Amino acid sequence: MCGECGYRAARKSYLAQHVRTHTGEKPYKCDHCDYSTAQKSTLDQHVAKHTGEKPYMCRECGYRTANKSTLSTHKRTHLSEKLYRY
Predict the structure, then answer these.
(1) Are 43 and 30 in contact, with CB atoms under 8 Å apart?
(2) Which of 9, 23, 29, 74 could cross-link 15 (Cys pair, CB 3.0–4.6 Å)?
(3) Mean pLDDT throughout 47-73?
(4) Does residue 35 contact residue 49 with C-beta atoms inside 8 Å?
(5) Is the pTM of this model over 0.70?
(6) Domains contained in the chain, number
């Protein structure tokens, strides 16, 4: 449990991540610039901007992106195309 606000987490790693919101600690640092963040997943997304890596791909059209949520948004364009095709 968080000593600052009482937040409870299912896993120790989730609690450690939460505590950083109070401490301001940003242990994940970019090797390409001075960016730092509290979450590894956020750093991974940031580093992709430097490397150009786009690991998420749409199976329907081949669109690629560095961000999983961007791919989810993109996939909805195909759904709306199918809905309005008739």
Answers:
(1) yes
(2) 9
(3) 94
(4) no
(5) no
(6) 1
